[in-house]
Amino acid sequence: MARKKSTVARREFLKGVVVGAGTLAALEPLAGAARATAEPSAPPDAEPAPAAEPVAPPRSIPLAPAIESDPPTDADVLTIDRSGSDFMVDVIKALNIEYVCAVAGSSFRALHESVINYGGNKNPEFITCCHEESSVAMAHGYAKIEGKPLCIFAHGTVGLQHAAMALYNAYCDRVPVYMVIGNNLDATMRDANYGEWAHSVQDAAAMVRDYTKWDDLPVSLEHFAESAMRAYKIAMTPPMGPVLLVADSELQENPIRADAKLTIPKLALPSPPQGDSGAVKEAARMLVEAENPVIVVDHTARTQAGIEKLVELAEALQAPVIDQAGRMNFPTRHPLNQSARRGAVVANADVIMGLEVMDFWSAVNSFHDQVHRSSRPIMKSDAKLISITAGDLYTKANYQDFYRYEGVDLAIAADSEATLPSLVEETKRLITADRKRAFADRGAKLAAAHQKAFDAARTEATYAWDASPISTARVSAELWAQIKDEDWSLVSVLRHFSWWPLRLWPFEKQYQYIGTQGGGGIGYNAPATVGAALANRKYGRLSVSIQDDGDLLFAPAVLWTAAHHRIPLLSVMHNNRAYHEELMHVQRMANRHNRGIDRAGIGTTFEDPAMDYAKIAQGFGVYAEGPISEPSELAPAIARALAVVKSGHPALLDVVTQPR
Ligand SMILES: Cc1ncc(C[n+]2csc(CCOP(=O)(O)OP(=O)(O)O)c2C)c(N)n1
Ligand SMILES: [Mg+2]
Q1: CA 534, CA 545: separation in Å to the nearest integer?
Q2: Ligand 1 pocket: which of 496, 522, 586, 655 to mutate (most atoms <8 Å of CB)?
Q3: Residue 609: is the preceding peptide bond cis (ω within 30°)?
Q4: Do 596 and 590 meet the contact criterion of CB atoms below 8 Å apart?
Q5: Residue 477 has what pLDDT?
Q6: From ligand 2's centre to the CA of 619, what distance in Å?
Q7: Which of 122, 259, 381, 567 is most exposed by smallest CB count within 10 Å?
Q8: Residue range 567-624, pLDDT digits in tens
Q9: Can you tell me the mean pLDDT for 282-292?
């Protein structure tokens, strides 16, 4: 068999790729993360590539003639020096993407190989995943810490099908996820031996288009570069969301055309929309004149600066803040944090302002799940409502994640965090000495109420302190006792855990809490916590997670990903040996139908045999202990597991717990 050998060295190729001047400068991560340099790179053992010379204004240099322009021969061509996938990796590098999470799939085999060899497996580094749902949920958790996406590669058919629910979670959670999928579009180029017919699709993105913000199918490398920039920009513009690029296999694998003028265009992330100045003034006037204003927050703060601006606003007004906990928004032990007193505070309010609240209706109404479902307002009938949300700028129709319509008095279609500075300024400008005195009185009462609610929560936490299985409050307290002096980051969902940490620990920093699944899809927590821990690793933060058993069972092999890639994470299991939430639903139905709850465990509990999560985790190479059912055994086990985590590895404690 004859073999063709390209004569064009990679350094020649690199000369042909010029990153748009200013591309990197525009890529400030939202969470204030350090920026990596992202220049077109060569494999570690290759001669260093010459720096691309920026030429202004055209940002492309024609490639040197390549062997691919020679007349075709009958010989089998086995090697090429420059594939489209190399250029795609340059584009991904220009986006400052640190990691690619993927289950290997031949429809993106060229991209895979280009990342690990051509790209030197650094920025991005390939993270081996065992389920595409885990790849995406890892990206979801990572983005909520880092404020920017990592990349996911997947098969365009079966891989995307596995990834779909995790994409939906990220979509509902307004989180940027950047996905590149492989596909073989040209039917005549599909190799049946590799299953390329069943793994090919006309319109790969169709199945997730309802819950992705944008997708594209670029047909040339130039097109890929433009679409890659556009996708990043769309994903990162509030309301943020997942985006999808289809990288056709031929485009990945074929040699770069000799006449291609490859350019990586500039990327400037749009500054998020601020509220109209007149509307912001009106909102400030309503808040300052109100006797009892309330601020409701949810997906509000993206950065530490956002948290601080919110604190400034609440303090200027001495107004209570109700946190619906979609993000880390407001310090939990701040005297104005009245999240535990929502009913009382909302009932007393004359002005209620929602900042990036996904479900404003539920903030001001109660809903009752009885035979005849009913609801009623919990606010005064003449209370005025203000809403500031980028959600008003973007809604799709099919999936109903936009919640019930709430009629508000003043709706500002803008990003809350970006609007807060002008709102704070206007508010402060309007506050007179008289109002300040009234606000101080209000603040003192709220501070006393906060302390009272906190004391009540502490008392509640002592109930069943010595119970076995262990109470969730005890698990929370034992964990806190050993992490409180560390730079900790709690990366898990807390809804099934009676929210104990949020009720008792002092959360202050953006990365200390990252909200929920978004779409409520179980199977999010385990991989999202690994992704968040991956983001935390370079800052030396201690990542801790409360891990529900049912959630872990969806795709437990993400534990191996954590072990293999040395991702330090302490997972303390909330092992109630059940899909307890669903058990309660079945109990409710059994009661409603007057049949008793004895059989409600059928289909909802994990007993006979109980599962041994320590063994499961150990099987994936993770340090693990358990089952731990005695409260006295918990503290020493946490200490041992923390030592493992501090040495740079994941650890899991299987703690058998009370249901809630
Ligand atoms: C993908 C998916 N399937 C099913 C459900 C329904 N569901 C909601 S809560 C829940 C139980 C989850 O069990 P676990 O994670 O152990 O939490 P627990 O309620 O036991 O504390 C299930 C199955 C869901 N939300 N998502
Ligand atoms: Mg459970």
Answers
A1: 13
A2: 522
A3: yes
A4: yes
A5: 98
A6: 21
A7: 381
A8: 999 999 999 999 999 999 999 999 999 999 999 999 999 999 999 999 999 999 999 9
A9: 98
If DSSP codes are grouped into helix, strand and coil, which group holds residue 151?
strand
Pocket test for ligand 1, best of 165, 552, 576, 581 (most atoms within 8 A of CB): 581
Ligand 2 centroid distance, CA of 177 (Å): 28
Q: Give strand ranges (E) for 339-422.
A: 351-355, 365-368, 374-377, 384-388, 410-412
- Distinct helix (H) and strand (E) counts, the chain: 21, 20
Q: Ligand 1: which residue has its CA nearest to atom 11? A: 579
Q: What percent of the chain has pLDDT over 90?
A: 86
pTM: 0.91
- 577 C-beta closer than 6 A to ligand 1: no
Say which ligand is closest to the CA of 555.
1
What CA–CA distance (Å, rounded) separates 90 from 77? 24
Could you tell me if the CB of 581 is within 6 A of ligand 1? yes
Mean pLDDT for the chain overall: 91
**Residue 399, phi then psi, degrees to nearest 5:** -75, 140
Strands (E), 381-493: 384-388, 410-412, 488-490
Res 81: pLDDT: 81
* H or E element in which residue 305 lies: helix 304-317
Own/partner pairs, 54-58, CB within 8 angstroms, 24+ separation: 54/18, 54/21, 55/18, 56/21
Q: What is the pLDDT of residues 447-466, one digit of tens each?
A: 999 999 999 999 999 999 99
Closest atom, ligand 1, to C-alpha of 576 = 20
Q: Pick the residue whose CA is nearest to atom 16 on ligand 1.
A: 550
Interval 469-492 mean pLDDT: 98
User: Is the Cβ atom of 519 under 6 angstroms away from ligand 1?
Assistant: no
The 3-state DSSP composition of the chain as helix, strand, coil percent (nearest 5) reads: 40, 15, 45
Q: Is the CB of 496 under 6 A from ligand 1?
A: yes
- Regarding the beta carbon of 494 and ligand 1, being less than 6 Å apart is answered no
